[in-house]
Amino acid sequence: MAKLICSVCGKTFPTNYKGFTCECGGILDLEFEAEFPIEKIEKRKPNMWRYLEAIPIADNRHLITFDEGFTPLLPIDFSGKTVFVKQDHLFQTGSYKDRGAAVLLNHAKEIGITKVVEDSSGNAGCAIAAYCAKASIKCDIFVPFETSPAKIAQIKAYGAEIHEVKFTREDTANAALNMAKETYYASHVYNPYFFHGVKTFSYEVTEQLGWKAPDTIVIPVGNGTLLLGAYIGFQDLRKAEIIEKMPKIVAVQAQNCAPLAKNFEGVSSSKIIFRKTIAEGIAIANPARKAQIMKAVSDTEGRFLTVSEKEIKDAIKEMAMQGYYIEPTSAATVAGLKKYVRNAQKREKIVSVFTGHGLKSANLSF
Ligand SMILES: *Cc1c(COP(=O)(O)O)cnc(C)c1O
Ligand SMILES: [Zn+2]
Fold first, then answer.
1. 7 alpha carbon – ligand 2 mean position (Å)
2. Residues 156, 302: Cα–Cα separation, whole Å
3. Shortest-distance Cα residue to atom 14 of ligand 1
4. Which ligand is nearest to the CA of 8?
5. Residue 32: which residues within 8 A CB-CB, separation 6 or more?
6. Contact indicator for 278, 253 with CB cutoff of 8 Å
7. Which residue, by CA, sits nearest to atom 3 of ligand 1?
8. d(C-alpha 206, C-alpha 237), whole Å
9. What averages of pLDDT result for each successive group of 10 residues across the chain (366 residues)?
């Protein structure tokens, strides 16, 4: 049976628990045994719900779904090295956050939730708002007032109640946390169901590579929803003995906001300076799941990379010149990838991802 478990004190809760932390304040994780009946999976529709036995939703007959997932995994050349890049900017709302929102909202519906609150730097808000619209669930979304205008317009279009908060991403989270005392918190950071949607990223990559794990994944990290989701996904596959070894996780941050990369290098938190970055989606000064992110990176013998604002802008342009239109946050990963491939092994199988669509930030020009 699936259950929620406190990451600090180990206390467990039934899956219909509606709080967002343990009484001790600890963040909750989900314990759930994923199964992979490969023959059945391969006969199903090409979307993320083909891994039904690995997703913690009991009633799969009335899913809220856009047939999302199974995005293309395209080979792209970076300085003579082929990298397989997951096209996760092609989801319904234009970012991979739909993976998490799909499972979170199906869970919320299953436990009888009719109203939720969420805070985000944009894309998670878009994804939660769209699935709420589809599920007829009311939602309040808090965003920092400097979020891309296109993301704010998109959230409003889905009929969500939007709250633009001054000033920082942290102020925004605090405003939402306050409302979450009374309303179900559909948080992509706190709610473990979100991660159990994002993890389908790893299932799809593995299936698309012929049920083999890549050697390395190069992914962005702010709050770590993609990073931890991917980590959980590969762990599920390893426990089920589908793959032999965890891929190495290479995590990319913007130089201007790189608390995790700096901590990893041994710089203490009080010494870290934060500046504005165009990679708004990963501009997180104090990620709530920091300890878990650090563990995932070190457990897989991975590392962090940081990229400058100029490198991010160059990457946007370079990708667009090949026909891929991605937003700055997504281009930060590409900039990191370009650094990583310089020292990659000849046979190393590398997977990366386009996380967000360029139309999200079409007001910017490069
Ligand atoms: C959310 C997001 C990320 C990753 O962010 P985390 O804070 O680590 O979850 C990366 N790119 C885009 C476009 C995003 O929206
Ligand atoms: Zn606890």
1. 7
2. 39
3. 281
4. 2
5. 2, 56, 196
6. no
7. 281
8. 9
9. 96 97 97 98 98 94 96 97 98 98 98 97 96 98 94 97 93 95 97 98 99 98 98 98 98 98 95 95 96 98 98 98 98 98 96 98 82
Measured distance CA(60)–CA(49) in Å, rounded: 9
Angle at 31 between CA 30 and CA 32, to 5 degrees: 110
Query: Which residues, other chains included, contact 157 with Cβ-Cβ below 8 Å and sequence gap of 6+?
Result: none
CB of 209 closer than 8 Å to CB of 84: yes
342 — phi, psi (to 5°)? Answer: -55, -35
Place of tokens 């990229």: 307
Nearest to 315 by CA among 334, 289, 329: 334
Backbone torsion region of residue 192, taken as left when φ is above 0, otherwise alpha when ψ lies between -120 and 50, otherwise beta: alpha
Query: pTM of the entire structure?
Result: 0.98
What is the DSSP annotation of 313-359?
Answer: HHHHHHHHTTT--B-HHHHHHHHHHHHHHHT--TT--EEEE--BBGG
